[in-house]
Amino acid sequence: MRDCFDFPNIKTTFSYFRPFFLYVAFFDTHRGSWDENDRKQNGPFYNLWGDGQKGHGSIPDWKPHVYDPNKVIVPYFLPDTPAARKDLAAMYTSFNRMDQGIGLFMEELKASGYLDDTLVMFTADNGIPFPNAKTNLYEPGQGEPMMISSPKHKEHWGKVDSNH
């Protein structure tokens, strides 16, 4: 992970600070530029970054999972068109990259010996960036991710509760 950008070695960086707070932000899942040339080069969600192509950089630990537009499930509030499917597939690809990035971060916590005493919280400020699903109070606009990994509740690791 440190090869991609200057990610700190957690054990070295924070060994003197107990407890410590670390904020890690991901750009993944955010829409890129609306400029057509930029979108062609980088993808609508900058989902091409890290793929090793010129100007995209390389993320050695990233194993890209590119979603097939023909196989994505189109939410009920979007039109089922080739353009919507292509856009959803790009968004799911960026979700997967972010998920892998969180996994790499968790591996770094484990390798540094901090995983068993670190509370990790992941959230976002809005739902997916599509009509009726962001910046409004329609049901799809209220869906925001929230994940918590607590060392005090390991029996719940890996479980999903969609009711809360």
What's the N-to-C terminus distance? Answer: 32 Å
Major sheet attributes: 2 strands, antiparallel
Shape: globular
Number of strands: 2
Secondary structural class = mainly alpha
Portion in strands: under 5%
Count of runs of 4 or more consecutive helical residues: 3
Number of domains: 1
Overall residue-averaged pLDDT value: 77
Low-confidence segments, ≥5 residues, pLDDT <50? 1-6
Helix content: 25-40%
Order of helices and strands: HHHEE
How many whole angstroms does the radius of gyration measure? 18 Å
Which strand order do you get reading across the main beta sheet? 1-2
Family: Belongs to the sulfatase family.
Domain Sulfatase N-terminal: 18-159
Pfam families: Sulfatase
Protein name: N-sulphoglucosamine sulphohydrolase
Description of the molecule:
With 164 residues, the protein is mainly alpha-helical. The protein has one domain. The protein is 26% helix and 5% strand. It is built from 3 helices and 2 strands, in the order H-H-H-E-E. It has helices at 10-14, 36-42, 82-112, and strands at residues 120-123, 146-149. Strands 1-2 form a two-stranded antiparallel ribbon. The chain is globular, with a radius of gyration of 18 Å. The chain starts with 9 loop residues before the first helix and ends in a 15-residue tail after the last strand. This is N-sulphoglucosamine sulphohydrolase.
